Each structure stands twice: as structure tokens, then as C-alpha cells.
Amino acid sequence: MKIKNICCIGAGYVGGPTMAVIAQKCPHINVTVVDINEDRIAAWNDENLDNLPVFEPGLDSIVKEARGRNLFFSTEVDKAIDNSEIIFISVNTPTKTYGKGKGMAADLKYIELCARQIARVSKQDKIVVEKSTLPVRTAAAIKSILNNTGHHVHFEILSNPEFLAEGTAVNDLLMPDRVLIGGESTPKGKEALKALTDIYANWVPREKILTTNVWSSELSKLTANAFLAQRVSSINAMSEICEKTGADINEVAKAIGMDSRIGPKFLKASVGFGGSCFQKDILNLVYIAKSYGLDEVADYWEQVILINEHQKQRFSDLIVSTLYNTVSGKKITFLGWAFKKDTNDTRESAAIKVADSLLSEQAKISVYDPKVVAKQIYSDLDYLKTRSSEENRNLLQVHKDPYEACNQSHSVAILTEWDEFVSYDWQRIYDNMQKPAFVFDGRGILNKTELERIGFVYYKIGSGA
Ligand code: UDX
Ligand code: UDX
Ligand code: ADP
Predict the structure, then answer these.
(1) Do the domains spanning 5-212 and 306-460 agree at the CATH topology level?
(2) pLDDT tens, residue order, the chain (465 aa)
(3) Which residues sit with their C-beta closer than 6 Å to ligand 3?
(4) 392 near 357, Cβ under 8 Å?
(5) N or C terminus: which one in the chain shows less Cβ crowding within 10 Å?
(6) Which residue owns the Cα nearest ligand 2 atom 5?
(7) Could you identify the atom of ligand 2 that is nearest to the CA of residue 266?
(8) What is the Rg, in whole angstroms, of the alpha carbon atoms belonging to the chain?
(9) Which of 429, 430, 437, 431 is nearest to 410 (CA)?
(10) Which residue's CA lies nearest to atom 7 of ligand 3?
């Protein structure tokens, strides 16, 4: 099958960068990314590449190279579907906020709307690719909708989960550990698998392109994220033991990471994991397990989330107890709001919960993050509905200059591991703070000896020494 046109429904964190890289690596294929959100499409088309809706190192130059050549961003969803032989679905699948499975199951309404739209528009056979992370067996639902509505053309469904991490999306896409494609083993299924494999083979070595059945592919994505999140919760659980016993979590992580069965990556203790995937995918896994009556399995994975919530809570508790059991009216500076460095994404960021707890203790918070804008920070807090948005604006200030954010502060808390925090003039920060000046390093990035020499009372996550 000769593929000339592909489209992607959903121009978000996954769809945008993924399609940009496909377009760059496959100049012979026209790639159209569509979205119902006009502002988002306008931002992807912005002449000024600083305004792209997704900030990822290296993404701007790829968009610059391919945009207008064979990469297009548009709001004309029907037209793109009609024109394409392959359609990727990369719309959001948030956790349900209503009804059965509320707070746990994935909300598939956007996926279903897409499937219905594809069925309505398609007049020729199409390959439909699930790119969004989805509960196992979603492909079956998509297939059922596609085959029972529309014009009775043939649809072949593939699952092709994305494993890119934010902040390293471009690298992850250019040099993936693996590409996973699930499909049916019928002749048409194999043909579809080959068509998608051939696209990736333009830049990914064939031995790294795995093909499986659809269900294995869907489940592998949830499993990968559950395992990664579990590693963070495991190291974070140990970080609390370290603080009590006088061990140091970095030393422990290094020691266990040298065991080749464990490996050194993803063992950094933190104030808690965030991001759009980990919590959502585990909740989803828990929901699936429960729906099959697998209560022990569900409880096992749920514990990963519970430890993560505990880690955030104990960080804010520690700030309160250290500041003489009251932070009421005290200024506390947050360095970092994003859920990790090198991204402007704040979804599920630990900073949100920590701030919310401290605001409930009547602290005054000032925030500096190199990439996150004030509007986002307020909207993250307002979304919790703990207090009115007016109160949030009164209690929390957002600064464009880190030194200003720290001025007259009682305590600085590191919430994100941005590199620039390490090279700040900490003496200058100290000189302008209230005394005693506290630093709570929720990412373990600063130099303890240096900070203590300046005069800070320094607390590092996972360090009991
Ligand atoms: C273990 C540790 O590996 C070793 O480093 C430590 O010093 C002592 O404990 P051991 O108990 O000899 O060593 O065996 P190991 O190979 O680790 O297996 C432990 C159990 O886990 C076995 O029952 C094994 O069958 C099981 N296992 C191991 C699995 O079920 N699946 C696996 O993938 C690996
Ligand atoms: C994750 C997966 O890595 C990716 O494969 C999947 O496609 C989407 O979900 P992402 O959410 O972008 O990617 O970020 P990731 O780098 O995995 O970090 C997730 C969270 O864990 C962050 O808050 C990060 O700070 C935290 N983390 C990560 C730690 O606290 N310690 C670590 O050692 C690693
Ligand atoms: P992800 O992190 O999975 O990429 P995002 O929320 O960043 O998720 O992006 C998903 C995008 O999908 C949003 O921009 C949203 O407007 C878009 N979207 C959702 N439903 C549809 C639809 N039916 N048609 C087109 N775009 C859609």
C-alpha cells in the first residue's frame, strides 16, 4: 500500500511533535495535523516559532523545516480525514470527572466522537491508528463504531502507543528505544502493520519496531507507565526511610542502580511525580483490574499513587513544622511549577498540591518558573476549587525574576529541577531573605555544603545525614 497522505486528529503534546518528526523524516508523505481548537492551530502556524503551543527543545527547527512543505496544521478535520490513507487519533483522554468510574476510568468521549467523525467522512478504506493512551480493548470499541456507522468502507485499526517523555520529546521520537505497533493478524491487518512500519522505518532501525496483537500493544503502554511511576514511588518511599535513619537516597540509588537487573535510570527521589500520564494511566489500570474483579492487583497499583500523594503532603507538612509550626502570613518562594524541567506543562505537577496545602495554612507564596506563565499557575489552583480564585490571586504572586521572588522570603522550596536553579547566586538570595533562611530542596539538586556555608538551614529530600 502506497501511503501519500496521513493526518492526525489532535494537535496536542503528543500529536504535534510526533507528526512534525514524521513529516521531517518522510518528505514524500503529506502530514496534516488537525484540531478543533482554533487557537492551538493558529499557534502551530505562527510565524514566530517561540509561540508554538508546545515547548520542546529542538521542535522549533523541525517545524520550521517541514511546515508548509509537507507538514500542515489545520482546523478542517473532515477534509484531512477524507484526504488521508492513515488517520492517527491523538485526542485527549482525561480521567472521567462524572458518573461510573469517576476519578479513575478514562473518559473516552473524545475518542468516540473522533471515531464517529471518521466513519461519517470516509469514502475509501482507511487505517486508523490509536495514538492516545487508552484502556485495553478500546480498539474494539473504535472498530465497532467505525464498522457500524458511515459508508461501509473497510477500516483497519492499529494501536501505536507513544512513549515520548516531555522535555525530551524530539530526541525520544528521533531515537526511540522501540516503536510498538499492535494490529490484527488477518491479511489486511498485516498489510496495515506493514504500511505503518514502513513509515517509521524511514528513520528507526527495523529491529526496534515491534509488532504485537492489539491488546498487548494497548496494555504495554499502561504497563510501561505503571512501572516507571512505581520506580519513582519506590525510591520516594525509601527517601522517607533515609531521612529517618541517616542514610542518603542518592547513595542508595547509586548502589542499587549498579545492579544491572535494576539499572540506574528513573531513581531520582522527588517531591512526587506529575505529568499527564502516570497518575491517569495507573488509575486506568486500577479501574480495569477492578472491573475484572482483580482486587489484589488493583490495590497493588493503587499504592503507587497513594505513596505519591503522601510524598507531596509530607513535603508541605515538613515546611510547616520546620517553620515553627506556622506559615500563616509567611512568604514562601517556589522555584519551579512545571511537573519536571524543560517543559511548560504543569499537569498533575507536585507544586500544585504542595501550594494548595500551604495556602490552606495561610502562607503567602511567590512563584518563579522559567517557562510557566502566571495564567496557568492560577488556573491550576482555581481548578482545585479549594478557595476562590480571588483568594488564590491574593495569596500567591507570580514573578518573572527569581531573585525578586525570593526577596524577604522565609523559605525557598525547590519544586522542579530546572538547571538554572543550581547556578543562582545563592549568597545574594540569602542576603535578601528573612532569617533563619530555609531551603527545602524537593529535587535534591543543590549543594548542601555550599548552602550551609552561606548560612541556610538546608533540607534535602531523602537525606538524613
Ligand atoms: C536474591 C537476589 O537476586 C540476590 O541479589 C540476593 O543476594 C539474594 O536474593 P536468590 O534468592 O538466589 O537471590 O534468587 P533470584 O534469582 O533473585 O530469584 C529469587 C526468586 O524470584 C526466585 O524464586 C525466582 O524464581 C523469582 N523470579 C526472579 C521470578 O519469579 N521472576 C524473575 O524475573 C526473576
Ligand atoms: C512519561 C513517560 O516517561 C513516557 O514514556 C510516557 O510516554 C509519558 O509519561 P513524562 O510524563 O513526560 O513521560 O515525564 P517523565 O520524565 O517520565 O517524568 C514523570 C514524572 O516523574 C515527573 O514529575 C518527574 O519529575 C518524575 N520523576 C521521574 C521523578 O521524580 N524521579 C525520576 O527518577 C524520574
Ligand atoms: P495529549 O497530551 O494526549 O497530546 P492534549 O490535551 O495536549 O493531549 O491534546 C489533545 C488535543 O486534541 C487538544 O488540542 C484537543 O483540542 C484535540 N481534540 C479533542 N477532541 C477532538 C476532536 N474531536 N477533533 C479534533 N481535535 C480534538
Answers:
(1) yes
(2) 789 999 999 999 999 999 999 999 999 999 999 999 999 999 999 999 999 999 899 999 999 999 999 999 999 999 999 999 999 999 988 888 888 888 877 888 899 999 999 999 999 999 999 998 777 778 888 888 888 888 889 999 999 999 999 889 999 999 999 999 999 999 999 999 999 999 999 999 999 999 999 999 999 999 999 999 999 999 999 999 999 999 999 999 999 999 999 999 999 999 999 998 999 999 999 999 999 999 999 999 999 999 999 999 999 999 999 999 999 999 999 999 999 998 889 999 999 999 999 999 999 999 999 999 999 999 999 999 999 999 999 999 999 999 999 999 999 999 999 999 999 999 999 999 999 999 999 999 999 999 999 999 999 999 987
(3) 9-15, 34-37, 40, 77, 90-92, 110, 113-114, 132, 276
(4) no
(5) C
(6) 163
(7) 33
(8) 24
(9) 437
(10) 12
CB of 268 within 6 A of ligand 2: the answer is yes
Q: If you take atom 19 of ligand 3, which residue's CA is the nearest one?
A: 91
CATH for 306-460 (3.30.1450.10, 3.40.30.10, 3.40.50.300, 3.40.50.720): 3.40.50.720
Ligand 3 atom at minimal distance to the Cα of residue 13: 4
> Which of 56, 59, 270 has most ligand 2 atoms within 8 Å of CB, for mutation?
270
Nearest to 180 by CA among 196, 165, 167, 166: 196
Q: How far is the CA of 159 from the centre of ligand 1 (A)?
A: 34
How many angstroms is it from 15 CA to the middle of ligand 3? 8
Shortest-distance ligand to the CA of residue 13: 3
Ligand nearest to the CA of 107: 3
31 vs 24, 92, 295, 359, CA distance in Å?
10, 20, 44, 46
Name which of 391, 401, 337 is nearest 364 in CA terms: 391
- By CB atoms closer than 10 A (0-12, 13-18, 19+), residue 11 is buried
pTM value? 0.93
Q: 132, 131, 166: which is closest to 56 by C-alpha?
A: 166
Nearest atom in ligand 3 to 15's CA: 4
